[in-house]
Write a structure and sequence with these properties.
single chain; mainly alpha; 5 helices; transmembrane helix; Nuclear pore assembly and biogenesis; APQ12; membrane
Length: 158
């Protein structure tokens, strides 16, 4: 039996494509048709098991479960929507900040010149490194103080 689809396609697509579809899609021995037959058999066998579950007597107990599942599904969809909205606006804000910084740097270079901007940049980097060294010195002195206190506590316990 020939499928009506290739006949209806004959005026729309070239004949070689219709023949290709007939040979590879609509042929009874094609993998697509074998998959369709397997799916049909699977659905028919599953319907024999699903029919008793969907009787009028048992569906009344399924209604609360289905409504709970639908409620969870809707809640999940809303949460995903909110997450995507937050991600969109955060991404938009960060892009605006990034391009604002790029514009500010370009305006500074245009107004003051590249040499002055580089001098300011390296001066700021030097101050950040000096501050980092200062914080490291404080941290190391506090670390040594706590180590000495811990050693004194261990010595007092002996």
């Amino acid at each position: 039996m020939e499928s009506p689809l290739p006949v209806s396609l004959q005026g729309l697509v070239p004949d070689d494509i219709v023949a290709l579809l007939q040979r590879h899609i609509f042929s009874p021995s094609s993998p697509v048709q074998q998959l369709r037959r397997s799916a049909t058999i699977l659905v028919q066998s599953a319907s024999a098991y699903a029919t008793p579950l969907l009787d009028a007597e048992s569906t009344s107990s399924l209604v609360p479960l289905l409504s709970l599942g639908v409620s969870f599904g809707i809640a999940l969809l809303v949460l995903i929507w909110v997450y995507r909205m937050i991600a969109f606006w955060t991404r938009l804000a960060l892009r605006a900040v990034f391009w604002g910084v790029v514009f500010a740097i370009a305006a500074s270079v245009y107004q003051r010149g590249l040499g002055n901007c580089m001098a300011d940049f390296f001066g700021a980097i030097g101050k950040v490194v000096a501050y980092g060294s200062f914080v490291k010195d404080i941290w190391m002195s506090e670390y040594e103080r706590w180590e000495a206190q811990a050693e004194a506590t261990r010595a007092a316990r002996r």
